[in-house]
Design brief:
By secondary structure, the protein is α/β, with parallel strands linked by helices. The protein has 12 helices and 18 strands. The strands form 4 sheets. The chain has a 7-stranded mixed beta sheet with strand order 6-5-14-15-16-13-17. β9 (about 130-135) and β10 form a beta hairpin. The longest helix is centred in the last third of the chain and has 23 residues, at about 325-345. The protein is globular. The protein starts with a helix and ends in a 13-residue tail after the last helix. About 45% of the residues are buried.
């Protein structure tokens, strides 16, 4: 699209998480008129650490924010997978992208704070929970539960796994339980019992359980994540310390000690969900990005990175296409085959015997073979 067309384009983004904030930055660089509507009264990200891949770092460089991200992250050279007791399984460098060779390990809160911090102060409007979205062909209208409405030439649904935009216009299918539960916490490196001595991600695999140690050495902290097979589909379960410790029985004693030392009040405990691939992400004036389009399990570490790449490709397509409708079709054509495959691969987390132990005769939907 011509520069004048882009600067006259009114864009409403629903959701100020990774996908929404990244899209806002990418599109504002093009000169578009962007407003982000966030349902929370303040933006606060809970959870633990993630790795920003070289392809994401390259997008940040294009948007002029790579230094901002680097300031609150640690560059990692490689990742390592080990048995529960620490025997090596594999070790590999991160895939490179152009001049970018490191995956940057970052706290989720620092990441979203940085993304929001590089946007104009009045671009994000909190306290706007979406009630409905109406597709009017070349425009769309948003209605919020606070009684306000907004019209836009383009609406971007970046409202996560429980997306209202997706439900209203594209698919009413519910999120899919993975058969897993995640325990996530950020602890001081001093409490990691000597297991963190560099900036590289390590994953320990035992029967039915994976433990991730993701260093955040710029904060003198480490992200500690236990993901375990579990038949309870509760989104936010109430569990005991003994429940959590049972998942790491037989692991390296230092991992058991880390888990035993956790205060459950600061551990984020969640059932793990994704969504099945949906057929279509866009109309002529509404499009999905990030988890709203393709929420995936975290085993490949690609959820946030996929959201960032969505934002970059969407901006590229709007810049290069003649119309919004043409741009949205091109965006889906580029991104959907990639994320469909990532969703599929991310579901292949456990052996047949491990799943059978927890779900005798009744595999969870995400562990069923592809049709």
């Amino acid at each position: 699209m011509q520069t004048s067309d882009l600067t006259n384009l009114t864009i409403a983004i629903v959701g100020a998480g990774y996908a929404g904030a990244a899209a806002a930055k990418a599109l504002s660089v093009l000169g578009a008129n962007v407003t982000v509507y966030e349902q929370a009264t303040e933006i606060r990200e809970v959870g633990a650490g993630i790795g920003l891949r070289p392809s994401s770092m390259e997008r940040f460089r294009e948007w002029g924010i790579a230094d901002d991200i680097a300031t609150v992250s640690s560059p990692s050279d490689y990742f390592e997978i080990l048995t529960a007791t620490g025997d090596p399984i594999m070790k590999d460098t991160w895939p490179t992208h152009g001049d970018q060779k490191h995956t940057h390990l970052i706290h989720r809160g620092d990441f979203i704070d940085t993304l929001i911090g590089v946007l104009p102060e009045d671009m994000v409007k909190c306290g706007h929970k979406l009630a409905t979205v109406t597709d009017r062909g070349d425009k769309a209208t948003l209605t919020f539960t606070n009684g306000t409405t907004a019209d836009a030439d383009l609406v971007i649904g970046a409202d996560g796994i429980k997306s209202v935009v997706r439900r209203e216009l594209f698919s009413d299918a519910e999120p899919v339980f993975s058969g897993e539960r995640a325990y996530r916490a950020v602890i001081d490196i001093a409490d990691a019992h000597g297991m963190v001595t560099d900036d590289n991600l390590r994953m320990y695999i035992g029967k039915g359980t994976k433990v991730y140690l993701l260093p955040l050495r710029h904060r003198d902290q480490v992200s500690f994540d236990i993901t375990a097979l579990c038949p309870d589909p509760d989104w936010a379960p109430q569990v005991s310390k003994d429940d959590m410790l049972a998942t790491v029985a037989g692991f390296d004693p230092r991992i058991v000690d880390i888990a035993a030392g956790l205060d459950l009040d600061v551990v984020n405990i969640r059932g793990v969900y994704d969504i099945d691939p949906i057929d279509r992400w866009h109309t002529d004036s509404v499009v999905l990005v990030g988890d709203a389009a393709h929420s995936m399990l975290h085993h490949q570490g690609q959820g946030a990175n996929s959201a960032i790449l969505d934002a970059g490709v969407l901006a590229d397509c709007l810049r290069d296409a003649d119309t919004v409708a043409e741009a949205l079709a091109a965006y889906q054509a580029q991104r959907k085959p990639v994320t469909d495959e990532l969703q599929r691969i991310s579901r292949q987390g456990w052996t047949e015997d491990e799943v059978q132990d927890v779900f005798p005769g009744q595999k969870p939907a995400s562990q069923q073979p592809a049709q």
